[in-house]
């Protein structure tokens, strides 16, 4: 199962999303028999890569926040 295929939420995968949707429109019955499977695999890989980038960015942001919090705690411990 994939997330909703909205282009504005997945700019990294926009081209593959368009191809996948076009394939489904062009082959309304064949899509059930594997006509669009290769595009689906590409789309899944793109979503995984996109998620990995988001995960890395969130981790970096949380590291910065954790450092700020530790600095604040040290500061308040020194000056009661």
UniProtKB/TrEMBL annotation:
Keywords noted in UniProt: Disulfide bond, Mitochondrion
Location within or outside the cell: Mitochondrion
Pfam families on file: Cmc1
Highest taxon above the source species: Eukaryota
Major localisation: mitochondrion
InterPro entries: Cyt_c_biogenesis_Cmc1-like (IPR013892)
Transmembrane segments: none
UniProt GO cellular component terms: mitochondrion
Similarity annotation: Belongs to the CMC family.
Protein name: COX assembly mitochondrial protein
Organism: Punica granatum
Taxonomic lineage: Eukaryota, Viridiplantae, Streptophyta, Embryophyta, Tracheophyta
């Amino acid at each position: 199962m994939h997330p909703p295929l909205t282009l504005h939420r997945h700019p990294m995968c926009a081209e593959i999303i368009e191809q996948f949707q076009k394939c489904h429109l062009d082959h309304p019955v064949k899509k059930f028999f594997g006509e669009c499977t290769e595009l689906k695999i590409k789309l899944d890989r793109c979503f995984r890569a996109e998620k990995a980038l988001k995960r890395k960015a969130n981790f970096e942001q949380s590291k910065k926040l954790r450092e700020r919090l530790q600095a604040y705690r040290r500061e308040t411990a020194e000056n009661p």
